[in-house]
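Running this now, will post back.
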Amino acid sequence: MSSSSDNVLPGLSEAPHYHGHRERLRDRFRTAGADALSDYELLELVLFRALPRRDVKPLAKALIQAFGSFAETVHAPDARLREIGGLGEAAITEIKLIAAASNRVAKGQLKQRTVLSSWGTVIDYCRTAMAFADKEQFRILFLDKRNQLIADEVQQIGTVDHTPVYPREVVKRALELSATAIIMVHNHPSGDPTPSQADIQMTKAVIEVSKPLGIAVHDHIIVGKHGHVSLKGMKVI
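Update: finished.
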């Protein structure tokens, strides 16, 4: 349920008590950029619009303390955000808008490039889209013969530590899209991207089914809050 401070009528100006601080923070962002701001200060800027008549610094600091960083806060599940006192629906919407915008920008950058020649962009996109999710997701990037992105789809969503993956379903979808190659991606909500034996076995099973049909598996990337791992880079596939 929204807090009363979320329901501010359009046109009301910010309370004078907070105006100076807000303008100084905005000026610093405009002149020095985001790198000049701490995580909680950047979050303050996000909260200003939703909470125009409140000192949002304590709330921003509480969010960073609860979730660990700006990135983890904006990617936190709605239900977890609602547990933070003083955070209403309007503020949650502003926070989730940042996550959605970052995903859309990263995906747009990926679509503009040949995937295999811009591996850093692939990793950045995968981490932006999945690293902070609270449940395992299995995503596939489908590529054409020029290694450009045809489609990016989440195939399965599982629990905190398991996602069921069916190799024949993966290949079936690749054939439907006329893809000639795929990159598999999934996240580890624990934060540690180290592959399990099940991850490795599943990857090898997908390769075995895909190869006779002319579909290459370029890699299986595992992302987490603390980094990423490429199974190809580990030389396990």
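Confidence is low (pLDDT under 50) at residues 1-15. More later if anyone needs it.
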